[in-house]
Amino acid sequence: MFLSRLRSRSRLGHSVANHVKLTAISQRLATPACSRLMSTATQKKQEKVEERTDHHAVVSTFDLFSVGIGPSSSHTVGPMRAAKIFIHDLKTHKVLERVHTLRVDMFGSLALTGAGHGTPDAILMGIEGESPDQVETSTIKSRVQDIHTNHSIRLDGTHRIHFNPEKHLIFNYFKSLPQHPNGLRFCAYDSDSNMVATNEYFSIGGGFVVNEETQLDHGENVYYKQEDKDGAMAERRQQDIAVVALPFKTADELIAVCKRENMTIAQVVYENELRWSTPEEIRTKLLKIWNTMDESIRNGVMACPTDMLPGDLKVRRRAPALYSKLLKGLYGPVKTSTEYHTNQIATSTIPMEEAIGHPDDHKNTFPMSLSVLPKRQRKRFFLPALDYLSVYAIAVNEENACGGRVVTAPTNGAAGTIPSVMKYYLEFISEHPERDVMEFLLTTAAIGMLFKRGASISAAEVGCQGEVGVACSMAAAGFTAVMGGSVDQVENAAEIGMEHNLGLTCDPIGGLVQVPCIERNALAAVKAIAAAQLALNGEGDHRVSLDQVIETMRQTGVDMMSKYKETSQGGLAVNVPMC
């Protein structure tokens, strides 16, 4: 599938006259008379992409995992980065000072669920020059309020212009740009209302942003998370054709490389990462990713248990109370089977009639079920793995819902699954924490690369299977790897993790990344452990391959109705009232 369409918008690098001229041209290109030209151009571009067989799946681990803010990587992190890129380009082409006002249009999913995902606020912060990994989250609310009150904003934090968010931030609820559901259009105008510059950006999931220069060629990994492209190495800008030590396009190729080189998946990714970073830089950045994940768990469980999550759903934080119960041991001690069944009918020598009475004894009892099947007293249920996995995942996603700092893993909506599984392993199983962190993250990154190239990690494109489903698959692979599983078993675990998330829809109630998103991460963490156990108890032989399930996921996403793709127009979003 080739997602790219002929672009009719001008590039930011053109002169003012060219921008105005090309805008007029774009209007003419929209007429039926030009449809054949557009179709021909698209066909030629498709043929060009098909000819390029050297594109691999390898991208930097630190482009796949990145530090950002909640609640959404595609609707918060991506739009903030897009706004910053646009403002940076205005500076680069020396037209920033000429800008008198801006207009920002949000299309498709960004418009439909943007308010609940914090998209407008993220755009405003990006315009002011902030980046997701460095913005001080505690100041965002007051700064946004100031912009709304004073009807002005500072481009790159320096050039103040007139800007009324109610007027200049446009929600196009019933329009989508053809390239991707998460579309943004920025237009800058001078004091005479002449257009100075314009560009369109697409937030394709995981915080990645593409525009006209990068296009949206399906499977082309030209994605890197740096606003200033001139400041990025050429190999980072064209990662899919960069010369890496051990390239791979598919899971089968990855396994073949591992077996040929007698290496683990983590070792293959590490060798490729040396293309862009030194060994010490790799170590430092991997530990920073984990420390951010761990901090988001800590913040989530240590929050006030009476706090409510933002938005009209009025959802209360659950992680603090759940964690408190775990620490206090209120779930009770683990009982053996004999202890559990003491005085129960299953192990009792008392005859059945004495235990429940003779049927004649209940002739005058109505209803009879009250005496035959009396209501049970509540039992204490204790499964440490499930309890800790759940509370860790919930903690991260509640932090994400509050706009806190999290790691895209591979997205914000799925940010709790991988940290939860890692935290559980490090606390209860690990003997070499630092080494295990590196192996876990590098292994999960490889699986994420395969999904990113072969399908998508954008819920607006393929539903929640592309976010929580991918996170579950990645976590299962990482857990299997650090448990000493073979390469085949790691691939098997990743396949199981996704196979049983196929078709998962994205239907957030009220456009908020809360219900069902938070609990869904907890269930994905538990499912990842189960997938790993199944794989570890086998020999790696299985009927369905990871490559097959990735392609199935892509096809399922294509066939899925748009109302189930992060639009809040179907599913729980329309069947659960907000009040």
Automatic annotation (TrEMBL):
<keyword id="KW-0479">Metal-binding</keyword>
<dbReference type="Pfam" id="PF03315">
    <property type="entry name" value="SDH_beta"/>
</dbReference>
<dbReference type="InterPro" id="IPR051318">
    <property type="entry name" value="Fe-S_L-Ser"/>
</dbReference>
<dbReference type="InterPro" id="IPR029009">
    <property type="entry name" value="ASB_dom_sf"/>
</dbReference>
<dbReference type="InterPro" id="IPR004644">
    <property type="entry name" value="Fe-S_L-Ser_mono"/>
</dbReference>
<protein>
    <submittedName>
        <fullName>L-serine ammonia-lyase</fullName>
    </submittedName>
</protein>
<dbReference type="InterPro" id="IPR005131">
    <property type="entry name" value="Ser_deHydtase_bsu"/>
</dbReference>
<keyword id="KW-0004">4Fe-4S</keyword>
<comment type="pathway">
    <text>Carbohydrate biosynthesis; gluconeogenesis.</text>
</comment>
<feature type="domain" description="Serine dehydratase beta chain">
    <location>
        <begin position="60"/>
        <end position="213"/>
    </location>
</feature>
<dbReference type="Pfam" id="PF03313">
    <property type="entry name" value="SDH_alpha"/>
</dbReference>
<keyword id="KW-0411">Iron-sulfur</keyword>
<keyword id="KW-0408">Iron</keyword>
<keyword id="KW-0456">Lyase</keyword>
<dbReference type="InterPro" id="IPR005130">
    <property type="entry name" value="Ser_deHydtase-like_asu"/>
</dbReference>
<feature type="domain" description="Serine dehydratase-like alpha subunit">
    <location>
        <begin position="261"/>
        <end position="573"/>
    </location>
</feature>
<keyword id="KW-0312">Gluconeogenesis</keyword>
